[in-house]
Amino acid sequence: MPEDASKPLPTDNKTPQFRSDVTVELVRSSAHDSDVLFAARVSTMGEQTLEGAQASAESEGATKGAGLINYLMRDRHGSPFEHNSMTFYVQAPIFVFREFMRHRMASYNEESGRYRELNPVFYVPGKERNLVQVGKPGAYDFVPGTAEQFELVDTATREASTQAFEAYQTMLEAGVAREVARIVLPLNIYSSMYVTVNARSLMNFLSLRTKREGTHFPSFPQREIEMCAEKMEDIWAELMPLTYSAFGKNGRVAP
After folding, report:
1. Is 67 annotated as a binding residue?
2. Hey, what CATH topology would domain 17-31+84-249 get?
3. Which residues are catalytic?
4. Is 99 annotated in some ligand binding site?
5. pLDDT band at 239, cuts 50/70/90?
6. This prediction's pTM
């Protein structure tokens, strides 16, 4: 062991920081209820949809447009909901991103620990985060933990994260490549990524990663990815209110 390996590492911009939230920002979008309407009408209007059909869809009135969208949602005519796009910038711990990418329903680009030195920002559960699982897979819930359990999780997470980042910095300072040094970092370190998705795929994601009363297919998401899903849902609801309303009315099932 090098004689100075146990000395404290420099703290300039290297002190671990801890967060209990996630960040979701809309970067750009082309997503309107009218996108669903003109895409659906090509079935009966053909080339006429190129001549002002989108503009007329925007001006025809909410009632008529809502009726068609609800019909498409109810009878699961899904493809008209794909002709739109939303790009989100998400900051969350890495374990959340691994759950995101299991869906294979979006385009992802994540920051890389091979090409940049990662920032010492780590997730630690907030006091409102339930800690104890009750029930069994497929029919379980989470309930608040005791004050002692919360203190244990908080202390252990902070200590492990700090120790891991110190080991990461030690290897970097010794000339070890970033892609090697990063292997000691825990899953609660924050990363960031762009997520580009259409409304149909987003509905699939929301149906699985949010827990809501009245849904046809109950879901039991991990709270941290549900936090991301909730923020994405709020943004989408403002962009496509008729589509969002129909999604809720029809049991939150992706068409």
Report:
1. no
2. Gyrase A; domain 2 (3.30.1360)
3. 209
4. yes
5. very high
6. 0.88
